[in-house]
Amino acid sequence: NVLILDFGSQYTQLIARRVRELNIYCEIHPFNKIPDNVETFKAVILSGSPFSVRNEDAPHPDLSKIRGKVPLLAVCYGAQYLAHFHGGKVEPSQTREYGRANLSIIKDKEMLFDAITENSQVWMSHSDTIKELPENGVRLASTHDVLNAAYRIDGEETFAIQFHPEVYHSTDGKQLLENFLVKISGVEQEWTPEAFVDMTVDELREKVGDDKVVLGLSGGVDSTVAAVLLHKAIGKNLYCIFVNNGLLRKNEFDSVLDQYKDMGLNVKGVDSSARFLDALAGKSDPEEKRKTIGRVFIEVFDDEAHLLKDVKFLAQGTIYPDVIESISVNGPSATIKSHHNVGGLPDFMKLKVVEPLRMLFKDEVRRVGAEMGIDPELLGRHPFPGPGLAIRILGDITPEKVRVLQEVDHIFIQGLKDWMLYDKVWQAGAILLPVNSVGVMGDERTYEKVVALRAVESTDGMTADWVNLPYDFLQKISNTIINRVKGVNRVVYDISSKPPATIEWE
Ligand code: XMP
């Protein structure tokens, strides 16, 4: 397996994803927690970092158990780190070294640049530059502005590159990673969805044995794939609970429940809409709404889990981005929104946790789901927040507002599907605003609600941009909503990016 040591770069996860795309398994660990068994890894990659090696607080890990023992590829900060502390020289760059550059490759007996042609485009992002190579350093490539764009250390399988092979704009970046991992380090490309399913099913059987497992289904991709995987491993001992919190999309509870049953899952649908809506009555603060929904969910789930006798395990659809211990450069980040589904369940349930997807990225979860024959439509569903429509109804929530928003949302989402736009959008939904506006219908003055439509493109929800939906489409949807949904007389389209806005309005 491959180890990626994280120095806090925004691109660290991208390195892991590129490695996984090569069907190679890898793990990210913080630079200050090098695993004890590091010699057993097949290769190590050092990430970039927002720090300068010349800064006193900069990461300063002890690589003595790695260098010369395990093949090493140092990226950006990693490359500077090797130079700075081992006899080379790193200084602030004279010119800006951000963005595109082209490589001039020095042919060498090493295979790092195999199948990569002269002038290959790479992506630079650094403000320091390596002036002198470290001891035994041999230059492998330069660019117009960066003399030491790549080097190796004589007598070791240690390589260093100043550019970022993991980003899309480094055209041959994946080839370079493949050269390092496969040709130089001899790592096998065995990490396929099929192999993952086989391995995980075996592990789950081993871990769970004949015990019962309970799992909360949400209708989303992660919990569904986790359920199908567990079902494959332990069959009828998996008990799924799907809670209707009254804040799902129109008809979603029934249609998703039917789909789960068709898939052979042992699932109980629990309609607790009234319990949630009662608890939410009169609450208009977004965080209070989230916390209320989280609390009621735990109560409902706990009641249901207690009805099942002798359950020993709780399964969750946690995925890798939630697990990676990230290096925080500026201290703990401020809570912008508390995502209730990360909280977990109370201690008194005393269940052991199984998380079969905890090492997978989202795209891998989808591939694993496809491998197990899950309906592509279900796998392609947009993300939907745990608190559902509650955070899309600004202000307090009433059953009537939920009904109105469900109708609007349904017209919008169905429209996206009919116009073949659904798969081009990462997430979409409608927001019910707490204002009335004046309109005219027939000869009557109206004074009714405003709804906003939101559709964004994103890869992980961390940053997002609004989608340039066709005017014809927006016109049609707006007309349909105003004509069909009583109580709404105005539709607006949200054209804010994240940051500075967020995807949800609350
Ligand atoms: P924001 O609004 O923070 O949303 O830009 C980013 C992504 O997270 C989802 N989201 C939530 N998901 N519980 C969830 O399970 C929440 O409380 C929550 N708030 C936002 C949002 O839908 C988007 O995909």
From TrEMBL:
Top-rank lineage group of the source organism: Bacteria
Signal sequence region: none
CDD domains documented for this protein: GATase1_GMP_Synthase, GMP_synthase_C
Pfam families: GATase, GMP_synt_C, NAD_synthase
Enzyme class, first EC level, given as a word: ligase
Residue span, GMPS ATP-PPase domain: 191-381
UniProt keyword Cytoplasm present: no
Keyword Magnesium recorded: no
Keywords: ATP-binding, Glutamine amidotransferase, GMP biosynthesis, Ligase, Nucleotide-binding, Purine biosynthesis
Active-site residue list: 76 (nucleophile), 164, 166
Residues annotated to bind ATP: 218-224
Catalysed reactions listed for this entry: XMP + L-glutamine + ATP + H2O = GMP + L-glutamate + AMP + diphosphate + 2 H(+)
InterPro entries: Class_I_gatase-like (IPR029062), GATASE (IPR017926), GMP_synth_C (IPR001674), GMP_synth_GATase (IPR004739), GMP_synthase (IPR022955), GMPS_ATP_PPase_dom (IPR025777), NAD/GMP_synthase (IPR022310), Rossmann-like_a/b/a_fold (IPR014729)
GO CC annotations, alphabetized: cytosol
Pathway: Purine metabolism; GMP biosynthesis; GMP from XMP (L-Gln route): step 1/1
EC number(s) given by UniProt: 6.3.5.2
A GO molecular-function descriptor: ATP binding
HAMAP family the UniProt entry points to: GMP_synthase
Summary of the function given for this chain in its UniProt record: Catalyzes the synthesis of GMP from XMP.
Subunit and interaction comment: Homodimer.
NCBIfam families to which the protein is assigned, alphabetical: guaA_Cterm (TIGR00884), guaA_Nterm (TIGR00888), PRK00074.1 (NF000848)
Protein's recorded name: GMP synthase [glutamine-hydrolyzing]
Gene source species: Mesonia algae
